[in-house]
Amino acid sequence: MGKFEVLDHPLIQHKLTLIRDKKIGTKIFRETVNEISTLMAYEVSRDMPLEDVTVETPMATTVKKQLAGKKVAIIPILRAGLGMVDGILELIPAAKVGHIGMYRDETTLKPHEYFVKLPSDIDQRQLLVVDPMLATGGSAIMAIDALKKRGATNIKFVCLVAAPEGVKALQTKYPDVDIYTASLDEKLNEDGYIIPGLGDAGDRLFGTK
Ligand SMILES: O=P(O)(O)OC[C@H]1O[C@H](OP(=O)(O)OP(=O)(O)O)[C@H](O)[C@@H]1O
Ligand SMILES: O=c1cc[nH]c(=O)[nH]1
Ligand SMILES: [Mg+2]
């Protein structure tokens, strides 16, 4: 079974509480999602592989560590996942970015894919699939289906708020995918929204509603 981690750094927790407040407007919501994403990227990248490299300092030649291999691609699930990309790029600026467009039918709660554009070498990269909300898990699973179909093997899923139902569904379908969240919330309501959650992340990020 992959990892399931709630990233409980005090700054992450504080900032998440800020944006749960329904009175917070688009500007602060967007900025804070980016800040949380930067902090989460720091934690999520802890186990990135290193390799030895020879470096000449002004004083001596030495063997030290650098990141190994082809590194990272960030895969936001549109729209709301876009809100996390810039924050992660602050720490991993050379990451490639692939996009998967997905919307959830409001009555059936089933996800529908409408766009896929990915770097050509996703099979060689550590993929960070990002979406603020893991509710039923349908969107995350369909996005990971799309990536695996194209050869991806090394996937982490990063969200801000997860429902127990979504975590279970994703772990059951893809036990090899590590899940990182800033909070494991209580439950889903009858409309498939996370309780207490933060509402509709896409609408709050982009000011649609
Ligand atoms: O786990 P699930 O039950 O699939 O729900 C979570 C999905 O729902 C939201 O997207 P939405 O469909 O609202 O699209 P948007 O990002 O364009 O607003 C959210 O950003 C996730 O992608
Ligand atoms: O609570 C939820 C559930 C799905 N999508 C959201 O944006 N919010
Ligand atoms: Mg939405």
TrEMBL record:
Pathway: Pyrimidine metabolism; UMP biosynthesis via salvage pathway; UMP from uracil: step 1/1. The keyword Plastid does not apply. It comes from Paucilactobacillus hokkaidonensis JCM 18461. Uracil binds at residues 194, 199-201. The keyword Transferase applies. The lineage of its organism: Bacteria, Bacillati, Bacillota, Bacilli, Lactobacillales. 5-phospho-alpha-D-ribose 1-diphosphate binds at residues 79, 104, 131-139, 200. Belongs to the UPRTase family. This is Uracil phosphoribosyltransferase. PANTHER family: ADENINE PHOSPHORIBOSYLTRANSFERASE (PTHR32315), URACIL PHOSPHORIBOSYLTRANSFERASE, CHLOROPLASTIC (PTHR32315:SF4). Residues 6-208 form the Phosphoribosyltransferase domain. Its cofactor is Mg(2+). Allosterically activated by GTP. One of its GO terms (cellular component) is cytoplasm. Keywords: Allosteric enzyme, Glycosyltransferase, GTP-binding, Magnesium, Nucleotide-binding, Transferase. Binds 1 Mg(2+) ion per subunit. The magnesium is bound as Mg-PRPP. Catalyzes the conversion of uracil and 5-phospho-alpha-D-ribose 1-diphosphate (PRPP) to UMP and diphosphate. It is an enzyme of class 2 (transferase). GO terms for molecular function: GTP binding; magnesium ion binding; uracil phosphoribosyltransferase activity. It comes from the Bacteria. Its EC number is 2.4.2.9. It catalyses: UMP + diphosphate = 5-phospho-alpha-D-ribose 1-diphosphate + uracil. GO terms for biological process: UMP salvage; uracil salvage. InterPro entries: PRTase-like (IPR029057), PRTase_dom (IPR000836), Upp_B (IPR034332), UPRT (IPR005765), UPRTase/APRTase (IPR050054).
